[in-house]
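Example record for the data management plan.
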Amino acid sequence: MAQCEVCGNDYDMAFEVHVRGAVHVFDSFECAIHRMAPVCEHCGCKVIGHGVQANGRFFCCAHCAQAVGTGAGLRDRVDDTGAVTAPS
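Corresponding structural encoding:
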């Protein structure tokens, strides 16, 4: 069995996540997200979807990037043709 590095649970179905040469062991996706997901630099939520990056900073959405002045031109959606649309 392997021990989760977040909660310490010793679990027979633990799994490994390999990132940049490091190996992390978790017993659930919840623990993996807690440890591995970036944090939005505006609102502080965990970015578990695609999120956006602006000037090397992580945000959960274009709105948060724009709120700190780094998201000029970013949009959260594209329409079916691939054209960028403004968030509603």
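Summary line stored alongside the record: The mean pLDDT is 88.
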